[in-house]
Amino acid sequence: MTQPTVIPRLPASGGTSEHLRTALSLATQGVPAMPLRAGKMPFGNCLACARNACGGRPNMKTPGPCACPRPCHGWAAATTDPQVLDSGAWAPTWQRAAAVAYHPGGAGVTVVDLDDPAAIAWARENLPATRTVATTRGEHWIYRGTMQSANAVRPGIDIKSLMQYARWLGPGAGATVALTDAVRALTVKEPPAPRRASQTLSAPLSGQRGACPHRTPAYLERGIAMAEQSIAAASSAVHATVYRTFLAVLSTHGRCGCLTETHAARLFTAAQAKGESARHCTDAWSNALTTLGL
After folding, report:
1. Model confidence, pTM
2. How would you write the pLDDT of the chain (294 residues) with one tens digit per residue?
3. Would you give the end-to-end CA distance of the chain in angstroms?
4. Gap between the Cα atoms of 238 and 236, Å rounded
5. What CA–CA distance (Å, rounded) separates 143 from 257?
6. How many Cα atoms within 13 Å fall on the side-chain side of residue 149?
7. Alpha-carbon gap, residue 238 to 246, rounded angstroms
8. Can you tell me whether residue 144 is helix, strand or coil?
9. φ/ψ of residue 113, rounded to 5
10. Are 163 and 171 in contact (CB under 8 A)?
11. Strand pairing class (166-167; 99-102)
């Protein structure tokens, strides 16, 4: 199956028969589709597959050797086969369906699920603009390419791509752009700190003088301010939040030579105000530089 690089423009679903029509239309574009029950949840295992008797895994993240025609493995039930989608065995499921979902990874895309206005504001400052789909409370930002899925990578932000499903809410607007380091960095966990790391910050990015993408100096200032706010708002997993924030700032602003020791010191101050040591701040910054190859 040839995977599309852009989610197709199709009518949004709006009724039981329309759900099936939407799923079939998605399937013709190479987008694996599946029904959702009320509450935006996939349908449960069928009787033949109860307790994963068919060989599927308990976490429902990988399909087993099951040939059952009904959706029974969460995201893995999504299919591009019109004969399966429109089969008589699936008819009862479509009659009870409340929405249509698709498997982003199977369609060759990644969905950044922004669940509230604060998450959207952060994304606008830190992530490249791309195709946007309005949701009930926020937005889906769709990027070309696949990556690891993860929940709660930041407050109000989930990543849906491989081994995950996303609700189909229409084609959205804007051009779909390729995944960047700034998006991939959201799921990166901090590596172990080097055994010997300097506890003082040298010039953070000496020698980096790439093309500057900033429209105005205020763009960088807003990015640093948002990073400070993200660290200050962390109520748990402070270590990981500090590292991810450093990684996001460096992936966005680290290659053009605009970051200075003053900017880095502001981030270190925010981290230390949350209880981080100077050594951990230096280690996290150094690890982020290494991860990005800076």
Report:
1. 0.64
2. 444 445 554 444 444 479 999 999 999 999 999 999 888 888 766 666 666 566 554 444 444 455 665 666 678 788 899 988 888 878 888 988 999 999 999 999 999 999 999 999 999 988 999 999 999 999 999 999 999 888 888 899 999 998 889 999 999 999 999 998 889 888 877 655 554 444 445 445 544 555 566 656 777 888 888 888 888 888 777 888 888 888 888 888 887 777 888 888 889 988 888 888 888 888 888 888 888 877
3. 38
4. 5
5. 27
6. 18
7. 12
8. strand
9. -90, 110
10. no
11. antiparallel
Strand partners, 115: none
| Tokens of residue 245, six digits | 């924030």
For the residues of 82-124, what is the DSSP string, one character each?
HHHHTSGGGHHHHHH--EEEE-TGGGTEEEEEE-SHHHHHHHH
The number of residues making up the chain comes to 294
How many angstroms from the chain centroid is the CA of residue 202? 33
Q: How many other C-beta atoms are found inside a 10 Å radius of the C-beta of residue 160?
A: 26
State both tokens at 201: 């910050």
Backbone φ and ψ of 50, nearest 5° = -55, 140
Tokens of 218: 């205020």
pLDDT of residue 170: 94
Which residue in 158, 117, 155 sits closest to 238, CA to CA?
155
Which whole-number Å values give the CA distances from 99 to 158, 177, 190, in the listed order? Answer: 20, 26, 37
Which residue type, as a one-letter code, is found at position 174?
Answer: G
Distance CA 55, CA 124 (A): 43
Pairing of strands 139-144, 109-114: antiparallel
Coil, helix or strand at residue 294 = coil
Distance CA 17, CA 94 (A): 8
**CA-CA distance, 259 to 154, in Å (whole number)?**
23
- Element spanning 193, H or E: none
Tokens coding 10 = 């199709």
